[in-house]
Write a structure and sequence with these properties.
- The protein is α/β, with parallel strands linked by helices.
- It has 2 domains: 2-119, Rossmann fold, CATH 3.40.50.2300; 143-216, Arc Repressor Mutant, subunit A (Orthogonal Bundle), CATH 1.10.10.10.
- It has helices at residues 11-21, 36-46, 62-72, 87-96, 108-119, 127-139, 145-157, 161-171, 176-183, 187-201, 206-216; strands spanning 2-7, 27-33, 50-54, 77-82, 100-103, 124-125.
- The protein has a 6-stranded parallel beta sheet with strand order 2-1-3-4-5-6, sandwiched between helices.
- Helix 2 packs parallel to helix 3 (62-72) and helix 4 (87-96) crosses helix 6.
- This is LuxR family transcriptional regulator.
Length: 226
């Protein structure tokens, strides 16, 4: 059973998230919060596997709540809920170690697929979020879109063939265990490849590596039924 905490300052959004998540018999919504402070307190109490946090909340926003969760409840992985026009917040959350990013207006199936991926140790970026991140980086002086894609391809080409395979699957939202099964290797081997990939790409977490995979064009959205 995947224990989940939902945090959003809009009651209707929380109700909608709960309604979607409870259609999956493997997901248990153990707590709801209307702000970041309550989210942190409830996470300490209930120890959920995944916290789904609105990026903007009163008092303590999703990024601040995520930082506190990483400090006090490190086993809880974080999915950030966002809307269009919040690109700067997304970049902050990406740098802060969020494991997943979903658009509030996305399909219900994507919410469940993303939550399952993150709970299983993977990273999940909504394709729309990934596209926004890549475009925003290009628009804010981090290089033109063509230049960033060229740079990403060069960084990926410097990986071994096996590391490129692992990165493509990681970028599609698969966990180490799922990648191991797909490539017919032991999970420890995949973990070693992922550590090497992060170091060689110069990124701090799986979600950031997924952005590079999207920029390089080797990652594809994970089908919802997985």
């Amino acid at each position: 059973m995947i224990r989940v905490l939902i945090a959003d300052d809009e009651p209707m959004i929380r109700a909608g998230l709960r309604a979607v998540l409870t259609t999956d018999s493997d997901i248990d919504v153990v707590a709801e919060a209307g702000d970041g402070h309550d989210a942190v307190e409830l996470a300490r109490r209930h120890r959920p596997a995944v916290a789904v946090l609105d990026i903007r909340m009163p008092g303590m926003n999703g990024i601040e709540a995520m930082a506190e969760l990483r400090r006090t409840v490190p086993a809880t992985r974080v999915i950030i809920l966002t809307t269009f026009g919040e690109d700067d917040y997304i970049l902050q959350a990406l740098g802060g170690g969020a494991a997943g990013f979903l658009i509030k207006s996305g399909e219900p199936e994507e919410l469940i697929a993303g939550l399952r991926a993150v709970a299983d140790g993977g990273a999940y970026l909504s394709p729309k979020v990934a596209a926004r991140v890549v475009a925003h980086l290009a628009a804010t002086g981090a290089g033109t879109l063509a230049a960033r894609r060229s740079s990403a391809r060069a960084r990926v080409d410097a990986l071994t063939a096996r590391e490129r395979e692992v990165l493509a699957l990681l970028g599609s939202g698969l966990s180490n265990g799922q990648i191991a099964r797909r490539l017919h290797v032991v999970e420890g081997t995949v973990k070693a490849h992922v550590s090497s990939i992060l170091a060689r790409l110069g990124v701090g977490n799986r979600a950031a590596a997924a952005v590079v995979a999207y920029e390089a064009g080797i990652a594809v959205p994970r089908p919802a039924q997985q």
